[in-house]
Design goal:
CATH topology of the largest domain: Rossmann fold
CATH class of the largest domain: Alpha Beta
Strand order of the largest sheet: 12-13-11-14-15-10-16
Shape: globular
Largest sheet: 7 strands, parallel
Strand content: 5-15%
Helix content: 25-40%
Radius of gyration: 35 Å
Distance between the termini: 48 Å
Number of strands: 22
CATH architecture of the largest domain: 3-Layer(aba) Sandwich
Length: 887
């Protein structure tokens, strides 16, 4: 909680700016004493200290401005600057009753504040500049408002405001009003407040059937992908504000979201900011106390806030000068069904010219009309076993929940549906692929041993297990579908090269598709080096010259080219294979289902090996790639030195530059990675282009620097990377494109600027660019934040310092950022997962078991009771295919 003495210090500073006129609080500083005592006792400050400070505040008004100035100067530094530490509570024993006059020993109490001088004794005169400062209501230079007393006001507070049109009415003294009882939860489907149902409303009816949505608003809503009533059902709120708590004014607490029902005492308007804006102030009372409520630039509210009128307002309880207030709350009449107060209020995504209140009204009507008509796709047996609420009720409650319990039940039901559809898809796909026929590609032990023996190093145990898995799969007459997962530098490429050699040895062709030209070229060099001249390898990119492309097309068509490595150029129509037996896809999650399917279609039904260098927690991998068998390389090649990882804060850049220069002088090379390509006005982060210019001219003028980013042409990237690999460039300044860049064993240092802006998995990829050679390597994580910042991103950086295990970091990254950001926004294949969380392992396990049982009973979902779920499954996977690869 906030330190109440910080609030008091702010008041005293305000007194200084006002010339010590004792008007910081309406009626004098002593009006703050009740709130001060309540807040300090709640914060567990010493009672004696509270009493002494309250006495000081009470006497303040008796002094002259000059005396007040001297008193504040002596008093303010003695106020506690932090909350008291909680003390352990010892076992209580009977104690003799102490007289109220007794006090604890002096050394156990906070220091006594200086006593105010009594008014009759004049202090030495002290100049206070211009003396009193005239208070103005310009909110750019002064507090927003003068708060009315909150608790048990005996009479209406005086407001120095322009009177409202009906301010001359006698102001009522409302009797204490009990809090209205909470409404009994009820389903929106049974509410009677919906207007008559428009004729012809169906799930696919346009939103223009709703009141207030004409052609213009329909066009606005299309920007949110809202076109039909069906779209509205899945347009879930992005968050909720709980205004269901009805409280009396005397029970309000700072920071809570509440609804209060009260009577208007007085309302007035005031011009602020030089007359450019208008402020509406209203004093409300419910018999237990009064509270001042403020609205800005809404002059029409004056007509709704007439004295004597009963209203309900909802908002966050704020605090101004120690008084509780409400600023810009939602205002509703108490005699109507409210969508904005007195309930859990949904907050929807908005777009230009669409207000929050209008969106809530339209969604309320759309969901109320259509949700009861939706067929529940889940069989009753599954709903009962999993203890799930009916689908229609879940849709109604996810939009306009009657309670937190019903909101939780709605989320559970809708999340289960999403996860079940995902599991049904991958499990059915796995069964279908296992039932298809494929070439049996067999290799003899002697041949495989010879291939492994020709490698420049001995395979690790994890690599040997992965090769054995792949070999066994390829020997079967069913297509292999295997995910090869390994950390940066763990040796996945070697396993892929041996798999391709097995395919070629069995008389088939092999193709490897990478997401970028940079990575494709890296694989081309590595695999050519590993396989030597035994199996010629060709590289096919979009930038490959046409004459060379035609030669490669012909070689693949007649079978003379056995291995090809490339980008999406491999799936062009001109590419045909004589006998494609193996497809290797690197960086699995970066390709869509359709892209991978096109490559597989060029060989009938080839074996498939997909690889990812992003460590994925096993439970998540089994969920994402449930149709694939899994091989994990969790062991690094011998001789690799751990990479020394250090965090650098904003005042330590010069140390980093000095260290980097020393590494270059010792013959090593370095990366400097920036978050952006070019400087952005909206994002305060270093850009590669700007940083390259600055480093080259001001910091490393004597070194050879190179620039690399994603907007460069392919041949420009090739030239920079080739120069870096060959040692002609000593420091390369790059964006995140270097994440899957060239393998340069001589590179020993990577400096990541704005490291707090990257996720853990991406930082781990950057770190993997070094440590490839025999030299000690370093990863310097330069944070934009100070070392004292309590920021989640700084916690991530500390995790990088503590471990080099990519799987441990992946678990933490998934927990922090969620699957969409973890795998790459809009590329993860999970664009349609709205409520399901891939970290909810019990839900995943439940959905996996129910999907398996359903497919065991009806593999093709052909039974009549499964028709609805089959339709939803088809629609779900159509959306998935447009988003990315999930299998």
């Amino acid at each position: 909680m906030a330190n109440p003495f910080d609030i008091l210090r702010g008041m005293l500073r305000n007194e200084n700016t006002r010339g010590y006129d004792n008007r910081t609080v309406s009626g004098g500083l002593d009006k703050y004493i009740p709130a001060f005592e309540q807040q300090t006792r709640k914060a567990s400050f010493d009672d004696a200290l509270i009493a002494e400070v309250a006495a000081w505040i009470r006497d303040y008004g008796t002094l002259t401005p000059e005396q007040r100035a001297e008193a504040i100067k002596a008093f303010a530094p003695t106020l506690p600057t932090s909350l008291p530490k909680p003390q352990p509570q010892p076992a209580r024993t009977p104690q003799p009753v102490q007289s109220p006059a007794r006090r604890p020993p002096q050394e156990q109490r906070p220091p006594r504040p200086p006593q105010l001088p009594s008014a009759p004794e004049p202090l030495p005169q002290r100049s206070v500049g211009n003396g009193k400062t005239e208070f103005t209501q310009d909110v750019e230079a002064a507090p927003k408002m003068e708060a009315a007393p909150v608790q048990n006001q005996a009479s209406p507070p005086a407001l120095t405001l322009q009177p409202s049109p009906r301010a001359d009415r006698p102001q009522p003294r409302p009797a204490p009003r009990p809090i209205p009882p909470k409404p009994t939860p009820r389903s929106p489907a049974k509410r009677k407040d919906l207007p008559p149902e428009p004729a012809g409303v169906g799930l696919d009816a346009p939103l223009t059937v709703l009141r207030g949505i004409g052609p213009k608003q329909a066009e606005n809503l299309q920007r949110l992908d809202l076109r039909t009533m069906r779209d509205a059902l899945s347009f879930f709120p992005r968050r909720y504000v709980d205004y269901s708590e009805l409280k009396t004014i005397n029970r309000l607490e700072y920071g809570e979201e509440v609804t209060i029902v009260a009577q208007v005492w007085d309302t007035g308007t005031q011009r602020i900011q030089g007359g450019r804006s208008v402020m509406i102030k209203s004093v409300l009372s419910d018999g237990t106390g009064t509270i001042e409520v403020t609205w800005f630039n809404q002059p029409w509210l004056v007509n709704k806030l007439t004295p004597g009128r009963q209203v309900q307002v909802a908002g966050r309880v704020d605090q101004y000068l120690g008084r509780l207030t409400l600023q810009n709350p939602v205002l509703e009449d108490i005699d109507r069904e409210s969508l904005n107060t007195g309930r859990i209020v949904p907050v929807y995504p908005l777009t230009k010219d669409v207000t929050a209140n209008a969106m809530r009204r339209w969604m309320y009507e759309a969901v109320g009309y259509t949700a009861p008509r939706v067929t529940d796709s889940l069989p009753e047996t599954i709903r009962s076993r999993a203890k799930l609420t009916p689908y229609s009720d879940a849709l109604l409650q996810i939009h306009f929940p009657d309670s937190q319990e019903q909101l939780a039940a709605a989320r559970k039901r809708l999340a289960f549906d999403e996860m079940l559809l995902l599991q049904l898809g991958v499990q059915r796909q796995r069964a279908e692929w296992k039932s298809e026929a494929a070439q049996s590609l067999v290799v003899f032990d002697e041949t495989l041993d010879a291939l492994a023996g020709s490698l420049p190093y001995v395979l690790t145990s994890a690599q040997q297990r992965a090769v054995a898995d792949v070999r066994a799969d390829m020997a079967r007459p069913a297509p292999m579908n295997r995910l090869l997962q390994g950390d940066v530098g763990s040796g996945k490429t070697v396993v892929a090269a041996l798999a391709m050699a097995i395919a070629v040895g069995a008389g088939a062709q092999a193709a490897l598709m990478a997401p970028t030209a940079i990575l494709a070229e890296q694989h081309y060099r590595s695999i050519t080096k590993l396989l030597g001249d035994n199996d010629p390898v060709r590289l096919l990119l979009g930038a490959t010259p046409e004459s060379e492309k035609r030669e490669i097309y012909d070689g693949l068509r007649d079978g003379s080219i056995k291995i090809v490595i490339g980008t999406q150029a491999l799936i062009q129509e001109k590419v045909e294979f004589a006998n494609l037996g193996l497809v290797v896809v690197d960086e699995q999650h970066r390709f869509g289902v359709a892209q991978r399917a096109r490559l597989r279609s060029k060989g009938g039904n080839p074996h498939l090996l997909v690889m990812t260098a992003t460590p994925i927690p096993r439970t998540l991998a089994l969920t994402l790639y449930g149709d694939l068998d899994l091989s994990i390389i969790d062991e690094m090649p011998p001789g690799r030195l751990p990479i020394d990882t250090r965090i650098l804060y904003i005042d330590e850049r010069e140390r980093a530059y000095a260290f980097l220069r020393k590494q270059v002088q010792d013959g090593r090379q370095a990366y400097v990675i920036c978050p952006l390509v070019e400087e952005s006005e909206k994002v305060e982060a270093k850009s590669a282009v700007e940083e390259y210019d600055r480093l080259q001219t001001q910091v490393f003028a004597d070194l050879r620097l190179g620039l690399l980013h994603g907007r460069m042409k392919a041949d420009e990237k090739d030239a920079v990377m080739t120069a870096f690999r060959d040692g002609e460039v000593q420091v390369i300044v790059s964006t995140s494109v270097v994440e899957v860049g060239v393998d340069v064993p001589n590179a020993s240092t990577v400096l990541v600027e704005g490291a707090n802006r990257f996720g853990l998995s991406q930082l781990h990829q950057f770190r993997g660019r070094v440590g490839r050679g025999a030299y000690q390597s370093y990863c310097l994580l330069a944070s934009d934040l100070g070392s004292a910042a309590k920021d989640e991103s700084n916690a991530r950086l500390k995790a990088m310092e503590q471990t080099q295990d990519g799987f441990v970091l992946a678990e933490k990254d998934l927990e922090i950022r969620g699957p969409g950001e973890f795998l790459g926004t809009r590329q993860s294949g999970f664009g349609d997962l709205r409520l399901a969380k891939l970290t909810d392992l019990p839900m995943i396990d439940l959905a996996r078991r129910e999907a398996a049982a359903l497919l065991a009973a009806d593999p093709k979902l052909e039974q009549p009771e499964h028709a609805a779920i089959a339709g939803r499954l088809a629609e779900f996977w159509r959306k998935m295919e447009g988003a990315g690869d999930v299998s």
